[in-house]
Design brief:
single chain, 514 residues, alpha/beta, six-stranded mixed sheet, two-stranded antiparallel ribbon, disordered C terminus
Length: 514
C-alpha cells in the first residue's frame, strides 16, 4: 500500500480536535494556574481594571500606551468590562485557550507545510507547556500560538493567492501580534522570512535570488519597528547582556522542566534520540520549508543574551518554538511504519499531559495554603513581600516568585512585586518613600553575597521605610526570620509568615504618594 495519508486515524479531524481539547486538561483543576509569574499578572490586571480608583488608584499609576506586551491584558480587561467576568475567572479562561491554540497552530502549520500531518508531529505538542508557559510568560505564549497559526496562513496564501494578499494581510496581522508581545512579532518576522526564502528556493530560484525577494515580501511586517522608534517616553528601557554558555546548556536541559527530574529528563532524551534518528535514518528527513526557520531560530537562541532592555529570559523563549519547527519539519519515507510511530508520539503527548496535570494540581494546592496569609493582611493596606529566591532553585520548586500578587487582586493591597519597566509595562508604583522596595525585583531575597540579586532579607528588614508599609509577608523563610523590634508576627504556617509593622516612627500612616 502506498502512503497518501488518507483514512489514517492520526489524520482525522476528530483526532486533531481531541489533541486540541486535551491540551487544556492540566489547567482545568487549579483555580489559579500555577505558573511562576501569574500571581502578579493577575494583580496587574486588577490594577488596570481599577485604574485611578479605590486603594489601588492611590498606590499605582497607570500610563496607558501601546506597548508590545498587552496580549492577555487586553483580552482579560475586555472579558471583565464587556462580559462582567471577574479578573481571576477571566484570566483562567484566557489561559485555558493558550495551549490548545498552540497545538492548533502546530497542526495547521504541519498540514500547510506537508499537505498532511506527519506521524511524528505529536512529539512537538507537549511544548505548548514549554518553559515560557511554565514561567508564566503568558503574553509571549499567546503571541507564539498566533505566530504558528499565522505561518500556516502564510503558506496557504502563498499557494492559493497572489503575493499582494500576503503583503496587505500580514501588514495588519503583524501589529496585532506585536501588541501581544514584541518578541512574538520578531518570531513572526524571522520565521516568515526564512520560510518564504525556503519556499522560493523550492520553486527553482537560487538562494541569492530567494533571500532578497523574501525580504521585500516580509518588509511591511516590520512596521511596528517604526512605532518602537518613535515611542518617546514609552521607549523600552532596561539593562541588556548576560550571554553565558552555562545558560544555553541550562535552557536545553530544562526544555521539559516541570516537577520531577527523571520524568522531565527522560522526555528530553526521547526528543534528542528522535533528532539523532532523523540525522542517521534514510527514512527520515527534514522539509526545508520548516527546517530553515528552525535552524535560524536555533542560531538566534545561541546569539541572544539572557537580558535585553530589561526583559529577562530572552534567549530561553526562542528555544521551544525552534524545537517545535524542527520536529514539525520531519517527514517519513512512504515505506516507514507510520502507524506505529504515530501511536508512540501520541503516547508521548498523552503521558506528558498526565504528568503536567498532576504537577499543576500539586503546586496549586501548595499555593492555596500560602494564600491563607491573605486573611492576616489588612485589606487595602501596604505589604512588603520577601520571597526566599534560593528556595526556587532546583527542579521541584514551589513556584512562589510572584504568588503575592494575588493580594493585589483579592485584597486591593500594595505590594513591592509589580514589574515597572518603561516600554514594557503600564504600571508605576506611587509610594515614592518605599523605594527601592517598591517594585520587582525587590521582593526576591537572595543569600548575602549571592550573584542572583541585590536584596537579602536582613538588609531589607533593617532598611525598609516603616511609614510606607503596614505589614511584611515573608515566603520561604522560617517563622520569626524577620527580626526587628517593630515587627509583630500575626500569622505563620510552615515557612510563610505575616508581621504587622508598628508605626511608632511615623508621623502619619497615610501613604506617601507622588
Amino acid at each position: 500500500m502506498t502512503y497518501d495519508g488518507a483514512g489514517l486515524w492520526w489524520q482525522s479531524r476528530l483526532f486533531f480536535l481531541a489533541c486540541v481539547i486535551l491540551s487544556a486538561v492540566p489547567l482545568l483543576w487549579p483555580g489559579v494556574a500555577p505558573l511562576d509569574d501569574i500571581g502578579d499578572h493577575i494583580g496587574s490586571y486588577r490594577i488596570l481594571a481599577e485604574a485611578g480608583r479605590g486603594p489601588l488608584g492611590r498606590y499605582y499609576d497607570v500610563h496607558w500606551a501601546a506597548v508590545g506586551n498587552l496580549g492577555v491584558e487586553a483580552i482579560v480587561l475586555a472579558l471583565h468590562r464587556v462580559f462582567g467576568l471577574d479578573i481571576e475567572p477571566a484570566t483562567k479562561l484566557v489561559l485555558l485557550v493558550i495551549p490548545p491554540l498552540t497545538v492548533a497552530g502546530m497542526i495547521a502549520l504541519a498540514r500547510a507545510a506537508h499537505g498532511r500531518i506527519p506521524a511524528t508531529a505529536m512529539l512537538a505538542f507537549p511544548l505548548a507547556y514549554g518553559p515560557s508557559f511554565q514561567m508564566g510568560f503568558v503574553n509571549f505564549c499567546l503571541a507564539q500560538a498566533l505566530v504558528l497559526l499565522a505561518l500556516a496562513l502564510w503558506l496557504y496564501l502563498a499557494r492559493t493567492r497572489g503575493g499582494g494578499w500576503r503583503i496587505v494581510l500580514f501588514a495588519l496581522i503583524a501589529p496585532v501580534i506585536w501588541l501581544c508581545h514584541a518578541l512574538g512579532w520578531a518570531l513572526l518576522l524571522t520565521y516568515a522570512f526564512a520560510m518564504e526564502a525556503a519556499r522560493l528556493a523550492e520553486t527553482g530560484r537560487t538562494w541569492r535570488q530567494a533571500v532578497p525577494r523574501a525580504g521585500l515580501i516580509v518588509a511591511p511586517m516590520a512596521l511596528p519597528a517604526l512605532w518602537m522608534l518613535r515611542a518617546g517616553g514609552d521607549r523600552v528601557a532596561g539593562d541588556s547582556g548576560g550571554w553565558y554558555v552555562i545558560y544555553k546548556i541550562r535552557w536545553v536541559l530544562t526544555l521539559f522542566k516541570e516537577q520531577w527530574f527523571v520524568w522531565d529528563v527522560v522526555a528530553l532524551i526521547v526528543v534528542m534520540l528522535f533528532g539523532y534518528a532523523v540525522i542517521r535514518s534514510r527514512r527520515l528527513s527534514m522539509l526545508p520549508l520548516l527546517a530553515v526557520p528552525a535552524a535560524i531560530g536555533f542560531a538566534i537562541f545561541l546569539v541572544l543574551p539572557y537580558v535585553f532592555r530589561g526583559g529577562a529570559y530572552l534567549d530561553m523563549r526562542m528555544l521551544a518554538p525552534a524545537v517545535m519547527l524542527a520536529i514539525l519539519s520531519v517527514r517519513i519515507a512512504p515505506a516507514g511504519n507510520h502507524g506505529r510511530i504515530a501511536a508512540l508520539t501520541t503516547g508521548f503527548f498523552v503521558a506528558r499531559l498526565i504528568g503536567t496535570t498532576i504537577a499543576f494540581a500539586r503546586i496549586a494546592n501548595a499555593q492555596e495554603r500560602d494564600w491563607q496569609a491573605l486573611n492576616a493582611l489588612p485589606p487595602g493596606g501596604r505589604v512588603l513581600v520577601l520571597v526566599d529566591a534560593q528556595g526556587e532553585v532546583g527542579w521541584g520548586r514551589p513556584r512562589r516568585w510572584h504568588i503575592a500578587g494575588i493580594a493585589i487582586a483579592r485584597r486591593r493591597m500594595f505590594t513591592n512585586t509589580q514589574w515597572s519597566v518603561p516600554g514594557q509595562h503600564l504600571i508605576r508604583p506611587r509610594l515614592a518613600d518605599a523605594a527601592p522596595y517598591d517594585r520587582d525585583p525587590s521582593s526576591l531575597a537572595f543569600p548575602p553575597g549571592s550573584q542572583g540579586g541585590w536584596v537579602n532579607i536582613d538588609t531589607a528588614i533593617r532598611d525598609f521605610d516603616r511609614c510606607s508599609f503596614d505589614a511584611v509577608w515573608t515566603i520561604g523563610f522560617p517563622a520569626g526570620r524577620a527580626r526587628s523590634p517593630d515587627l509583630i508576627r500575626t500569622w505563620s504556617d510552615r515557612d510563610s509568615a505575616v508581621y504587622r509593622v508598628r508605626h511608632h516612627r511615623c508621623l502619619s500612616d497615610a501613604p506617601s504618594v507622588r
